[in-house]
Structure to design on (171 residues):
């Protein structure tokens, strides 16, 4: 396993972006050390770990911010609370709640995409096993029945990453 200081991060990134990339490098180094040791099945273990972490974070945020209800507006509040926990976060998506659909759209800096480029990673082994299960599990702390779909993904050629959330029976 290499350590973050051994990766070459371009100088074009701000200090905060560099910090976020270094944190993501550490996360992926752990993930891929597990894959190296135990094979591809380790990705499923990593996904489960992130689901458990996300659910705990969601429960914590619900309690800390007094979020009530189990509808999409409560999920939106949870996501906003999560983003506000790190006011200096550089990856800040747009959140839109229209009717029975909650949409999160990201088109700016993404530490995962930049880290994948730096580490020459297969993107199919990144978000689906790290941020997506974490984030969805966090939302399930509000409503275990929430559903999720990735409508767009920049690494597949889309201009944005777009995630859609709904609650079964609402649409």
């Amino acid at each position: 396993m290499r350590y973050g200081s051994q990766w070459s991060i371009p100088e074009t990134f701000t200090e905060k972006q560099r910090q976020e990339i270094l944190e993501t490098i550490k996360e992926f180094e752990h993930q891929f050390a597990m894959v190296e040791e135990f094979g591809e099945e380790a990705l499923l273990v990593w996904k489960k770990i992130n689901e458990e972490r996300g659910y705990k974070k969601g429960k914590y945020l619900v309690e800390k911010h007094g979020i009530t209800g189990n509808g999409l507006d409560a999920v939106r509040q949870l996501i906003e609370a999560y983003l506000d926990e790190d006011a200096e976060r550089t990856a800040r998506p747009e959140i839109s709640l229209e009717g029975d659909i909650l949409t999160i759209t990201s088109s700016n800096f993404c530490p995962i995409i930049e880290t994948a480029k730096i580490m020459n990673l297969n993107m199919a082994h990144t978000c689906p096993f790290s941020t997506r299960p974490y984030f969805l599990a966090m939302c399930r702390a509000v409503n275990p029945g929430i559903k999720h779909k990735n409508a767009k993904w920049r690494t597949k050629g889309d201009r944005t990453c777009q995630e859609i959330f709904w609650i079964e029976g609402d649409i």
Remarks:
- Helices lie at 15-38, 42-65, 72-84, 111-119, 131-140.
- The chain has one domain: 9-167.
